Amino acid sequence: MATLTKNPNVNKWVDEMIALTKPDKVVWIDGSDEQLEALRDEAVSTGEMIRLNQEKLPGCLYHRTNPNDVARVEDRTFICTRTKEDAGPTNNWMDPKEMYAMLTPMYDGVMKGRTMYVIPYSMGPIGSPLAKVGVEVTDSIYVVLNMDIMTRVGVKAFENLGDTSDDFVRGLHARADIDPEKRYIVQFPEDNTIWSINSGYGGNVLLGKKCFALRIASFQGKNEGWMAEHMLILGVEKPDGEIKYITAAFPSACGKTNLAMLIPPKCYTEAGYKVWTVGDDIAWLKQGDDGKLYAINPENGFFGVAPGTNEKSNPNALHTAMKNSIFTNVAIDNSQNTVWWEKLDKNPPVDATEWKGAKVNGPEYIAQCNTLAHPNSRFTAPAENCPCISKEFNNPQGVPISAMIFGGRRASTTPLVYQSLDWVHGTYVGSAVSSETTAAAAGAVGVLRHDPMAMKPFIGYNVGDYWQHWLDMGKKLGDNAPKIFNVNWFKQDENGNFIWPGFGDNMRVLDWIIKRCEGKVDAVETAIGYLPKPEDINLTGIEDEVTPEIMDKLLKVDKDLWTKEIAEMRRYYKEDIADKGGRIPKELWEQLDRIEANLNK
Ligand code: OXD
Ligand code: MN
């Protein structure tokens, strides 16, 4: 099939990939409904996908990955910069020449007997000055159909690139044998190139997402003066109609998609507040002509974790996934050909097919301590389906950001919310993001895992240089810089019970954050930052649950715990980062002294 672009750089690279992988056939994805529908039919006819109940789930398909291939593989993910120092201590590294030499024979002829699909795509709205183009070649229809939901796919993507530019990200994906021992997810940031092999799981093969929009884009952002962050973007509409935009970064298992699609409590909805979703996972941020920081969501859909999503936890996500979506590794309710996952409801299907494909009696199977859906099973759903999608979702200029939030899962130490003292301190707060492990994951409970800016697996270069880039952005933004906050929805009492209700009630904290940005509310200056006065968190409707005593606990800055926290951060900076080649900016070391001095005042 003929190429879709005159751009010689694209055509030359695709020809090279054809020569390497030797497919029987090459199909360029033009983005038309007819072509995509034909691919859906083909995937259903070969058994690669299953068509679900088209009355209940119109346009929805189902796919099962190999049981050895159900999640991102951080130990097999590499950043191949020319020097090891440039990849830094948070990445696996190999010399790019050696990596190409090792992988090239694995790709040689790997698509013989198969079709290569060439997918042009745009990360970000077509025509946006913040958008970037990628081309992914793959031998998987599943990848084509997921990329179609998650990005803007087809010939229109080339409009942003033009006929001569070389500024596109080259992504090569081959399923090969799905051999976990030969699975590699490799970024070559200096070549704008991603090579992925032996996986069919979303995070490893939808190359626009983590590989491009975070790993490669963070590297591009450093060189070009913008930021790629693992952040949701939401807008809070106030009763007067003004919308304030906020970004937020959390490690996994902290409810990012739920916060992005939050439904405010009654006292807020009745007063006229609404929350609008711009993105649930990734933000690209750039200074606008007016000096403010603007954000786009480079994606066009949501790749959400299914288990735990239900009418209470996130009705918006549930509704978003009810049409034109792809479900991966959830369970099937055979009586209706619909989907089911843990915590969708309390009625697991009796006639079920579990995620690996075995027909089982659902309740009996669960009683044997098995889950019907894989814990990392996913829905891939178009953003346009989301009942609370922002009207600015496709705005090429993005939305102006007033506040940036960091957060983690911390049983003690970290208060419900605090505002950083300034941008440099806020950068420190981001570098200190960490989460305690839960009983849901293997290993010890309550172990602190550092995950700076929730970007540890996604920073495409040296983490110290990344922190320096944050400081540089702050200098450039000056007074226009968003205010930086930290939140903790997971504080516990002595008995291990959560003391903040979370979910929709997190609106109460967003409200305080917005008022701080507007200069409409005072705060208490403490050693670690500005904290709310207890009376400034609106508790209307939850006064019985969040008593004054609980509020005191939620807002407590415990000197002993914070002294330990700073000692741990000193250890982390030194042992995990600096001693291993992380180039930590001196301003961040100084923040440790600053907070310690404050604590001892
Ligand atoms: C994701 C992740 O899938 O962060 O979004 O792992
Ligand atoms: Mn993510």
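^ oxalic acid complex. The chain has three domains: 8-30+72-224, 229-297+393-557, 302-385. Residues 559-577 form the longest helix (19 residues).
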